[in-house]
Specification:
- The chain has helices at 9-16, 51-68, 80-103, 109-117, 120-123, 134-143, 148-169, 176-186, 210-219, 239-244, 250-264, 285-304, 309-316, 339-345, 379-412, 418-424, 445-448, 451-457, 460-464, 495-527, 555-563, 598-627, 639-644, and strands at 40-44, 47-50, 189-198, 225-226, 229-238, 269-278, 328-332, 357-359, 362-372, 429-435, 472-473, 478-488, 491-492, 543-545, 571-576, 581-591, 631-632.
- By secondary structure, the chain is of the alpha+beta class.
- The protein has four domains: 3-174 and 629-644, Porin chaperone SurA, peptide-binding domain (Triger factor/SurA peptide-binding fold, Orthogonal Bundle); 188-225 and 495-591, no CATH class; 229-249 and 383-489; 268-372, Chitinase A, domain 3, CATH 3.10.50.40.
- Strands 14-3-16-15 form a four-stranded antiparallel beta sheet, with helices on both faces. A four-stranded antiparallel beta sheet has the order 10-5-12-11.
- Strand 1 (40-44) and strand 2 form a beta hairpin.
- Helix 2 (51-68) crosses helix 3.
- The radius of gyration is 33 Å and the shape is globular.
Length: 645
């Protein structure tokens, strides 16, 4: 399919106001409104990343996951480790942004045009005819504190950042010989025997005293902090709830169907083939003349014998997506192609061949091969969707009307949520132990996962004066106003609260230490030829393993076995698996990798080149960290701290 020229004609109108953009050299923070008083969590090149930015970025990642995988319990991802990973990615993005500013990289208008035409967010706001609802787009952008221009500027900035990263990756070059040598070594197979000393088998031998618990608690009090939390009452104004309450009578549904059944059933679709001779926007007069002469020659041949069209397309078309298919573009509706192409196709009769059509992509000769008329669906098949559409449109209007009243009442009568609840028929809900990082109850995450709302309830007026927050837009056409009912400052948990966890952690640590010492004893005996089991553990049966065929063994064991210097066999190594235990590995033989088939070998070299390019990018990012003197100011979560909590 000739995907690069598919676009909405309404988008073109929308773009007129977007493309008069001078690229502004600003960082990621230039596109977000954050609290200037928010603590700094990372810094670079004179810029900072704040706690509010970090919270919002993590919330955005969780929201994206929630939308793409509705069944996923995203609370599992809202951990200290996941949050820290978000901060690392945010810093990485800002490093690339700083590089963009230093290098003065600019995304051109044509690139921004293409990105906006292909933007999934914009395309999701098109109707069945492919037309963009510009009013809806501008309304939703306004809710996010953005305009047409700032959205396009944000897109341009993202494209400029991508240019920097792609430019570095494009320099990655891996010679075939080097790739083969590396891949052969990577996929080398080894015969090994493994003995696993599971820490759990030593648990009964461990004794943890109250003195041990007290000492560990005293030495690690920083790991037992209970975060600052608030209990809140809140109101939710939800457009979806408004829609559910809207009743529409059957006569109105049928009238709407009769008036719109053609549109609701979808537009007519047409199937076309084309021969494309590409021309850049800045092509010279000689290049244009040469292309036009060739196009005229091809046009004469296909009009003289239309049965040649597919073959001539294969031989001459410069559209890689359709040439091998004889120029076939498949079926598409109005507005799916650039304007001139669209106009030509929908003015033709089936079987006709167009004159030469000029677009931004070059010169086209088009053959209309089929026409698929829209199938008028019966009322019964459309009733449910019509009902949803009418409810949705009425709910959107009602929501806009009620939202202003909601915002005014919670602000004007800021010492209680009751007036707003009574006036609008809303139910006051509650949430317990909401921290700056999120709610304690996963069920509350749909509301309190929003960083902006959490920031509002931790403001001084909310905590100290117990005033209502402003109406906060949390997305999905929902407004929330909240009031703090109780505040719990951050504190160190008492030993009694964490004693059971400390005992479990100390038991696990001591059991793991016993596993290590027992495994080391076994290694000493087995090295000199003993085959007797130690602590009822013996070396397992010999197995053949490689990185791509690990069997039931964990990757870290396979990696350790493959790192062993196998010049003198048998060779031994060990793996400390932390709280899981200890492993002893005996390498008995090395097996060369069988030569892969040609197709597989080519794919592997390609993947190796991609990995090499990624390594080049990572090295570049590492250099940027040094160049811009970047650093994260918050500590990285430790495994011990998380277990203790």
């Amino acid at each position: 399919m000739f995907e690069t020229i598919r676009q909405s004609k309404i988008v073109m109108i929308f773009l007129l106001g977007l493309l008069v953009i001078a690229f502004v050299f600003v960082g990621v923070s230039g596109y977000s409104s954050f609290n200037d008083k928010s603590p700094t969590v990372a810094e670079l090149d004179g810029a900072v990343i704040t706690q509010a930015q970090w919270d919002q970025a993590h919330e955005a990642e969780i929201q994206n996951l929630r939308e793409s995988m509705p069944q996923l319990d995203v609370k599992l991802l809202d951990t200290p480790e996941a949050r820290y990973a978000t901060l690392e990615r945010l810093l990485q993005d800002e490093l690339v942004a700083a590089s963009v500013r230093k290098l003065r990289v600019v995304a051109g208008d044509s690139a921004v045009q293409r990105a906006l035409r292909d933007d999934p967010w914009l395309n999701a706001r098109r109707d069945a005819s492919g037309n963009l609802d510009v009013a809806q787009v501008r309304e939703e952008l306004a809710i996010r504190g953005m305009t047409d221009e700032s959205y396009a500027a944000q897109m341009a900035y993202a494209l400029a950042q991508a240019q920097v990263a792609q430019g570095v990756q494009a320099t990655g070059l891996a010679l075939s010989a080097a790739a083969k040598a590396t891949l052969d070594a990577y996929f080398e197979r080894r015969q090994i025997q493994v003995a696993l000393f599971d820490a759990r088998q030593f648990t009964e031998s461990v004794k943890v005293t109250d003195a041990d618990v007290q000492t560990f608690y005293d030495d690690n009090k920083a790991n037992f902090l209970a975060p600052e939390t608030v209990d809140v009452a809140y109101l939710v104004l939800d457009q979806a709830d408004i829609a559910k309450a809207i009743e529409i009578n059957e006569a109105d549904l049928k009238a709407y169907y009769e008036q719109n059944k053609s549109r609701l059933s979808g537009p007519e679709e047409r199937r076309a083939s084309h021969i494309l001779l590409t021309l850049d926007a800045g092509a010279s007069a000689d290049a244009v003349k040469a292309a036009e002469e060739k196009a005229k020659e091809l046009l004469a041949r296909v009009k003289g014998d239309p049965t040649q069209f597919a073959q001539l397309a294969k031989e001459n078309s410069q559209d890689p997506g359709s040439a091998q298919n004889g120029g076939d573009l498949g079926f598409f509706g109005p507005g799916a192609m650039v304007q001139a192409f669209n106009d030509a196709v929908f003015a033709m009769k089936k079987g006709e061949i167009s004159d030469i059509v000029r677009t931004d992509f070059g010169l086209h000769i088009i053959q209309l091969t089929d026409v698929k008329s829209a199938e008028i669906k019966p009322y019964e098949a459309m009733r449910a969707s019509i009902l949803d559409d009418l409810r949705g449109s009425q709910a959107a209007r009602k929501f806009a009307e009620v939202a202003e009243s909601f915002s005014n009442v919670v602000y004007e009568q800021a010492d209680s949520l009751e007036p707003a609840a009574k006036r609008l028929g809303l139910t006051i809900q509650t949430a317990k132990a909401v921290s700056r990082q999120g709610p304690s109850n996963a069920a509350d995450n749909a509301i309190w996962g929003n960083a902006k709302l959490r920031e509002a309830v931790f403001a001084n007026d909310a905590i100290q004066k117990k005033l209502n927050t402003a109406a906060i837009d949390i997305g999905s056409s929902r407004l929330v106003a909240a009031r703090v009912t109780a505040h719990q400052p951050a504190r160190t948990r008492d030993l009694a609260e964490v004693k059971t966890r400390v005992q479990a952690l100390l038991t696990a640590q001591k059991a793991a230490a016993l596993a290590v010492s027992t495994g080391q004893d076994a290694l000493t005996k087995w090295r000199v030829g003993s085959t007797a089991p130690v602590a009822n553990v013996r070396l397992g049966q010999s197995v053949s393993v490689s990185r791509d065929q690990a069997g039931e063994l964990s990757p870290n064991l396979i990696a350790a076995a493959l790192r062993v210097d196998a010049k003198q066999l048998p060779a031994w190594t060990t793996v400390d698996q932390g709280l899981q235990g200890f492993a002893v590995i005996k390498v008995t033989a090395v097996e060369k990798r069988p030569a892969p088939e040609a197709t597989q070998a080519a794919q592997e070299v390609q993947q190796f080149t991609q990995a090499w390019s990624s390594a080049e990018l990572n090295a570049y990012l590492a250099s940027l960290k040094v160049r811009f003197n970047s650093k994260i100011l918050v500590p990285k979560p430790s495994a011990t701290a998380n277990v203790a909590r």
